[in-house]
Specification:
This protein is of the alpha+beta class. The chain contains eight helices and 16 strands. The longest helix has 25 residues, at 2-26. The relative contact order is 0.12.
Length: 281
């Protein structure tokens, strides 16, 4: 009788653990499932990587909790379309072959894709792009080193890809327009990122213009846009995305506070120097 009770309790415990593990990738904000949060017409297959995954085979536990399914990835591996280092238990996405649904043409490790990704940007002198190449060269050649050190400071831009498709900008600085207008340099625009998705194997970033309330908190977005990129490369510390305008490489960071604090400090320093020089004139 005691043995029977022990095995009954053990079975219940294992069932509870299994349900919790399944819930890890099924539940989203406000109880929504990943399937409810996916983009319209997205044919990507999502699930957890099971034990038995190799360079030629992916074993996937589907989102619906059905039995694991084995997919051939020999061609995907040969074509460098297995993105990330697949580990047992990772949340992954597969794009299946149109002729053979047991073959995956692309595999991406979504757990490895999550995190903070950054790249370096440099500012340009205001109206720099409106100048001729000759004038641009002369401006940079004649600019004092002290001025370059003051204003031409590199900054880190990027994004933080979170659980349940949430995203935020890294290095985003909300500046007072009057102070920004005083600066002799301008940085490339950085979108205010709010969401990310996978759509048929491609990476999609959603951004918008934030609306602030009296307490300076974001209460909504306008001018929402969607940027779609191909994932060219992914490993633990490197990511390469490309679109029709070209490719960009990213490196992984661990602390978003460090990046944002430095971005704010640079923006504040440049604004103060710009106001100082304006007052001297």
């Amino acid at each position: 009788m005691q043995k029977l009770l022990f095995f009954t309790l053990l079975s219940a415990l294992l069932l509870t653990i299994g349900c919790q593990d399944e819930q890890r990738f099924k539940s989203g904000p406000n109880g929504h499932s990943n399937d409810e949060l996916r983009m319209k017409d997205d044919s990507t297959i999502y699930g957890l990587a099971c034990e038995g995954c190799t360079d030629s085979v992916i074993v996937l536990l589907p989102n619906d909790g059905s039995d694991p399914v084995k997919y051939d990835i020999i061609d995907a591996t040969r074509n460098h379309k297995v993105l990330g280092k697949i580990k047992t238990g990772d949340w992954i996405g597969l794009v299946l072959n149109k002729q053979d649904k047991k073959v995956a043409d692309l595999v991406v490790d979504l757990d490895q894709l999550k995190g903070i990704w950054c790249y370096i940007v440099m500012p340009k002198m205001r109206d720099y792009d409106k100048m001729s190449k000759k004038l641009q060269s002369r401006l940079m050649r004649n600019m004092p080193d002290s001025l370059k050190q003051t204003f031409l400071i590199p900054r880190e831009y990027g994004f933080w890809l979170k659980r349940q498709w949430e995203a935020s900008s890294v290095g985003y600085v909300q500046q007072v327009s009057t102070l920004a207008d005083e600066s002799p340099v301008v940085y490339p625009p950085l979108g205010y990122f709010v969401k990310w998705n996978i759509w048929n194997g491609k990476f999609v970033m959603t951004s918008g213009k934030p609306k602030y309330n009296n307490e300076n908190k974001v209460v909504g977005y306008t001018d929402v846009s969607y940027d779609t990129c191909s994932i060219d490369y992914l490993d633990e510390d490197s990511l390469v995305l490309s679109d029709r305008d070209g490719s960009r490489s990213y490196y992984r960071k661990n602390d978003i506070k460090e990046v944002n604090k430095r971005a704010q400090a640079i923006a504040s320093r440049i604004s103060k120097e710009a106001l100082k020089k304006s007052a001297e004139q």
